[in-house]
Write a structure and sequence with these properties.
Blueprint: E1 6-11, E2 13-17, E3 21-27, E4 38-46, E5 56-61, E6 64-72, E7 74-79, E8 84-87, E9 92-96, E10 101-108, E11 115-123, E12 134-138, E13 145-148, E14 151-157, E15 159-160, E16 163-164, E17 175-181, E18 186-190, E19 196-207, E20 218-219, E21 237-241, E22 247-264, E23 272-274, E24 277-279, H1 282-294
Parallel strand pairs: 1-20
Antiparallel strand pairs: 1-21, 2-3, 3-4, 4-11, 5-10, 6-9, 6-11, 7-8, 7-10, 9-12, 13-14, 14-17, 15-16, 17-22, 18-22, 19-21, 19-22, 23-24
Length: about 300
């Protein structure tokens, strides 16, 4: 086994999206194509309902998949195919927009007032951009949890120690794990050489490869006088791994570390991205927005009333 090295480290940055949702962006438009096939990762975490209740009212998507994972709180959703539902703590919604869908995601105030969740955008290859929309909604109780050498892993997509996640038949062959490593513990995972691999830290501290010199790794956004850098990484940090190697190794520091691990097969295709629509060419973007203006954007129509 060849242990992968960290290619680059980013710190999530505050931003406002939707109708006024305050969140942290781990990576996004400015990093394309570093995270191919992933386009964006947003971390929305707030104890102030005023920062999230405005939500994400009706808006279109085409050419991508959006993945929502809730740790705490409640999100109501609906779409142009007639689907409606609610996802709460531990639930996942994996939506394939494909040829076009209009949907909304509206957080509701939880008893504690805290909302914490994540949304990823994953790209679709050119041959699948116009596939029929679909989604897989998975409740927390359906997501298996396995323990390997003291490390607890919630397996949403992909496989660990013979335990397979409930999200399946996805084009980019993804893995999505919620990993908790005890203090001093080690998480090891084998993955396909060349697949993009990402870790996003939720809590605690850990070492995300075998190096211990913090100046060996590029940290995006670090100041020119950042002389106190550490290779032991903390929360709201995203780790991008080099593509070479077939094993990930994470070692917790003197307290536990929790992180999301994501991997997928890179598409290596051109990206034309504007707002909620991601295609391969500017001409395809123009067609999409022209269709949206004319009311012909949605190809698969349900019964939901868009209000």
């Amino acid at each position: 086994m060849t242990v992968r090295r960290i290619a680059k480290i980013f710190k999530s940055r505050p931003t406002v999206e939707g109708a006024g949702v305050h969140l942290k962006r781990a990576f996004g438009y400015s990093q394309v194509p570093l995270f191919d096939p992933f386009l964006m990762l947003d971390d929305f975490h707030s104890a102030n309902p005023a920062e999230y209740l405005a939500g994400f009212p009706w808006h279109p998507h085409r050419g991508i998949e959006t993945i929502t994972y809730v740790l705490e709180g409640v999100v109501e959703h609906g779409d142009s195919m007639g689907n409606r539902g609610v996802i709460g703590a531990g639930d996942v919604q994996w939506m394939t927009a494909g040829s076009g869908i209009i949907h909304q995601e509206m957080p509701k105030e939880s008893p504690s007032g805290v909302m914490w969740g994540f949304q990823f955008w994953a790209n679709l290859p050119a041959e699948c951009k116009m596939m029929a929309p679909r989604y897989q909604e998975v409740k927390a109780a359906e997501i298996p949890v396995t323990t390997v050498d003291g490390v607890q892993i919630r397996v949403v997509a992909g496989e660990v120690a013979g335990v397979r996640g409930p999200v399946r038949d996805v084009v980019i062959d993804p893995e999505l794990f919620d990993v908790s490593v005890p203090a001093g513990g080690v998480f090891r995972h084998t993955l396909a050489d060349g697949y993009t691999a990402i870790a996003y830290l939720l809590d605690g501290e850990g070492f995300f490869d075998e190096r211990r010199d913090p100046f060996d790794v590029e940290m995006a956004g670090a100041g020119w006088m950042d002389l106190s850098r550490r290779c032991c990484l903390g929360s709201e940090t995203v780790v991008l791994y080099e593509p070479e190697g077939n094993e990930i190794k994470v070692t917790a520091a003197d307290r536990p570390v929790r992180f999301l691990f994501i991997s997928g097969k890179p598409l290596k295709e051109p990206v034309a991205w504007y707002g909620p629509i991601v295609m391969n060419t500017q001409d395809e973007l123009r067609v999409a927005f022209d269709e949206y203006a004319k009311g012909t954007f949605v190809k698969e129509v349900g019964t939901v009333e868009l209000i």
